[in-house]
Amino acid sequence: MLRRSPTIGPVPLLGIVVLGAALGTAWDSLHVWTGTTAYAFGPDRMPFWVPLEFALVYVVGALGITLLGSPRPDARSPSRLLGEGAWLTVVYATTAVLHRYEWLVVLFAVGVIVARRRTFADVALASPAPAIALVAGGTIVETVLIALGVFDYSVASLGHVPVWLPLLYANAFPFGVRLTETALWYSRVSERRPA
User: Fold this and answer.
1) Segments forming the whole domain that contains residue 80
2) What is the rounded distance in angstroms from the CA atom of residue 93 to the CA atom of residue 98?
């Protein structure tokens, strides 16, 4: 018997678009400002389409987690999302500030995963296919964009990407799950409201 996937309502989906564009661009700006990455359009500039790219990535991610994973939305989802946003900001900032020291960043990113292993086990075991897709797919997409000349990393030991990049995506996965759970929770709350 097929399991019926929950659906994200239009207003929460719009929230994902806005949040994805804003946060993704802000986090990416850390890499541009610190010289971790440089776009082909200038070493200190970000192309106008970057917020659109992140909005699309976040929507695809949330829909993928909804369809292929097992998100568990409840009233705690919004506070969990804030916590995951804080953790991801710390990890992202570390990759930006310490990008010249790839293995130090690797140790830090692995340390965060080990310290938060219960959270990682919870979200990854509930949604293994989206977790693998994010870590592998994100790294592959960035490799393709670099091959196309869109941007470059200043320090890259894993082909054309930093060795810590898959770990950054792994650290982003709990945020993606909590974002999806929050959107699903808000969708359910709005469905229950009387018209």
Assistant:
1) 10-190
2) 8
